[in-house]
Amino acid sequence: GIQVEQSPPDLILQEGANSTLRCNFSDSVNNLQWFHQNPWGQLINLFYIPSGTKQNGRLSATTVATERYSLLYISSSQTTDSGVYFCAVVAANQGGKLIFGQGTELSVKP
Amino acid sequence: EAGVVQSPRYKIIEKKQPVAFWCNPISGHNTLYWYLQNLGQGPELLIRYENEEAVDDSQLPKDRFSAERLKGVDSTLKIQPAELGDSAVYLCASSRWRDTEAFFGQGTRLTVV
Fold first, then answer.
1. Which of A21, B19, B34, B51 could be bridged to A72 by S-S, CB 3.0 to 4.6 A?
2. Does A3 contact B at CB distance below 8 Å?
3. Strand pairing report for A83-91 and A29-37
4. Per-residue pLDDT reduced to its tens digit, B5-53
5. Percent of chain A that is helix, strand, coil (3-state, to 5)
6. CB-based contact, B91 to chain A, within 8 Å
């Protein structure tokens, strides 16, 4: 099945810093989503981005489907950005099965 | 629009006891997922429904786990009997169709003692 690898596994930032999280996947995808799991365990939708670039406030994401990776950019980080960021994909040959990476744990210090 | 609703939020049971989790998806969403998340790991799919049909249950431990989605709306996931290793967070998600954006509920944190 498709493999999803996220890097880095852990990231510690000072408030106000910028960061880039990466998601590599091993096969063609029909769907790619970025989620933020807050300290209470809720998975919050950030982007639905099987290809192209999107921006939402301080966050933006780019997926280069032909090269099988996606990037999540966080600018001017805040302590509330802390938590785990997950990338999840649906392989083109496994329609509907949303497969998660292992996540990047982000800690933003004041 | 209401999100995906799960209950209960927390459950503590003794091993060998049964337990059930309930999920109400977003209105109009045909696809429903149950995921299992162990501490420090990404969620893993247990079962996926398209309307009432379980189209992917290959990861569901069928000796002790069962699920149903009556009338293609609400769903229930059951474990009987529970084992210590079942302690985890059980997440429900829904999407309008397969491959479209999925939305997750708040999860049920199960502790088996």
1. A21
2. no
3. antiparallel
4. 999 999 999 999 999 999 999 999 999 999 999 999 999 999 999 999 9
5. 5, 60, 35
6. yes
